[in-house]
């Protein structure tokens, strides 16, 4: 499908994602793709580990602990390269250091202070050494991103759940202007809100759907049908439209979904569709509109 940007993390399946992706990429030309992973959780062997946190299924042989120190970040990058069997990463994101992290909650600021003194300077050093090409945060909220821009020298951020058809005003008005001013790129994660905009009755990473969102999706679907538009395709193009956005990374659990996502990026969506969404106040008036191709 022409996709050459791959994103993983030690957290995804507690090492399983990195092992699978490394096996896939091992025989590929390293110059042909962009690879990002994440730091902040160190995996620890735990054969009896059965906590099965969050959405990860199956038997997991690692537990984890948070470590945003300089030593922890360098170890995490080295561990990732060992798991993947690869020699380098392009982008490293400090992962889930955010107030929505249930392990941290209001203590996220304390973790941030550790990262400010440890992880951030170390990632800058690793960038200077050529081990990585860029770094930033991979988070589901805006505040840690803005705070990092104030105190350090990041290159790129993975902002998940914050810029989609359903929820985008804060990112559009608070985050994007700062990133544009500082010449910082954004990768948009969860552009479909974990399948919600593809018709699944779940929102982001839980079964709970915010009040009014089912009705809002229904209105959008009706408008989409009237214009002969696939709402999922519109959602992907919407998240990719701002100039500050370098890439969108929708998840795919089946091959056909990956093919459909790639095809969606070249579908023609009429300007009248976006105009009607704005006239019905379903999206922000100042939201960039994808250009019909």
TrEMBL record:
Pfam families, per database record: Aldo_ket_red
In terms of superkingdom, the source organism counts as Bacteria
CDD domains in UniProt: AKR_AKR15A
By its UniProt entry, which SUPFAM superfamilies does this protein fall under?
A: NAD(P)-linked oxidoreductase
What residue stretches are annotated with the NADP-dependent oxidoreductase domain?
1-279
Query: Which InterPro entries has this protein been placed in?
Result: AKR, NAD(P)_OxRdtase_dom_sf, NADP_OxRdtase_dom
**The protein, known as:** Aldo/keto reductase
Q: Which organism is it from?
A: Autumnicola edwardsiae
């Amino acid at each position: 499908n022409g996709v050459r940007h791959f994103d993983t993390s030690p957290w995804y399946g507690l090492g399983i994602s990195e092992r699978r992706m490394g096996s896939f990429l091992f025989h590929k030309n390293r110059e042909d793709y962009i690879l990002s992973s994440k730091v902040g959780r160190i995996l620890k062997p735990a054969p009896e580990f059965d906590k099965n946190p969050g959405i990860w299924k199956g038997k997991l042989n690692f537990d984890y602990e948070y470590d945003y120190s300089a030593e922890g970040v360098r170890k995490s990058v080295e561990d990732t390269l060992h798991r993947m069997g690869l020699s380098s990463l392009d982008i490293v994101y400090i992962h889930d250091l955010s107030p929505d992290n249930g392990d941290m909650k209001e203590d996220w600021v304390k973790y941030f202070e550790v990262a400010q003194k440890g992880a951030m300077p170390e990632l800058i050093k690793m960038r200077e050494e050529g081990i990585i090409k860029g770094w930033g945060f991979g988070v589901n909220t805006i505040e840690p991103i803005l705070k990092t821009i104030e105190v350090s020298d990041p290159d790129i951020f993975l902002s998940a759940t914050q810029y989609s058809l359903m929820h985008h005003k804060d990112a559009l008005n608070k985050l994007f202007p700062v990133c544009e001013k500082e010449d910082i790129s954004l990768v948009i994660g969860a552009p479909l809100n974990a399948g919600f905009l593809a018709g699944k009755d779940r929102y982001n990473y839980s079964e709970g759907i915010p009040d009014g969102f089912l009705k809002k999706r229904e209105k959008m679907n009706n408008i989409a049908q009237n214009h002969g538009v696939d709402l999922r395709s519109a959602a992907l193009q919407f998240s990719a439209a701002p100039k500050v956005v370098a890439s969108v990374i929708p998840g795919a659990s089946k091959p056909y979904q990956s093919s459909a996502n790639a095809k969606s990026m070249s579908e023609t969506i009429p300007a009248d569709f976006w105009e009607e969404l704005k006239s019905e106040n379903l999206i922000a008036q100042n939201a960039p509109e994808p250009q019909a191709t």
